[in-house]
Amino acid sequence: MTANAREQPLVTLALMVFNQKKYVRDAVEGAFSQTYSPLEIILSDDASRDGSFEELERLASAWKGLHTVRTNRNPENLGIADHVNRLFEMSRGEWVFLAAGDDISMPHRVETLMRHVAAATFPVFAAFSDRLIIDEAGNVRHRTPIDPNRSIERLGLIEVASKRGGIGAGATYAYHRDVWSLFGPMDSRVLAEDRILPLRACILGSILQIPDVLVKYRHGESSLTAVAIDSLTTNLHRSDEFAKAFYSQQHRDLATGLKEGLIDKETFEAAGRAVERSRRFTIARTLSRSPNPIVRSRGLGQLALLLGARSQGIGSREIGRAILGSLFGPFTRLMGK
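Predicted structure:
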């Protein structure tokens, strides 16, 4: 069956939770409210310590609707990559929608996205939408619009590789299961599945952007990615380990694409160069945020060199923001949101 099958396929909506008990009810209700069918819902807890799993169990046991609902509790904390790996293993859907325990899926999220995928005239292996940013209290902060006329087809692989493997917000993504089954599990040290799986989707075919607002994304300390990345900001060794795992995974995925005949050698080499430039940018940006002035200066110097070579695929705006973020700290990052 192709990625855009004519028949309405079984879809899995996987809710990932870690110490998010106070938001879980809203997230689960968003999943239960989906208008699409057939739908499998997996409520999965990554060894929370705040009673999140017990809340998931209570909500699941009270569910009387048509969707199939399953719960899962990891015996130990797996982290983002292995939790996603586990959910793909468990899922039965042809498409897998990922959702965080503090975000809210609009009732028509799955139905709308799947309708666009089915209508696409090119093979789609990942899709994402617009979103509303909400704060910890649920108040809307702003919307992050995308160009309604833009789609990323297979030719966009280089662009996606240049943007560290992904475009769009991971909280709004859905993936055809081939992005996992054909490439295998992600390295457990990867902290951002939305910069691995979209690249795989472009190797397989294309990514579709949907202009509809389909997710309320909660911006704050409860975010799974924020929790993971915050732990790296003061630990350059761990940050370097993450970067190595992250970009090694991307290079392996490109090699798999070449081996399986999904991309040709010219595309493989061009995408590999784009990934390498992204790796250099990530390392330089990490160094530029160091509290050590010598290390920070080295990072700034590397960013300046990349800024001068921006025609090679790294956006000057992104590099400029990284430089300003290093010089002026949290204030600049706040202004850039």
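Summary: The first helix runs from residue 21 to 32.
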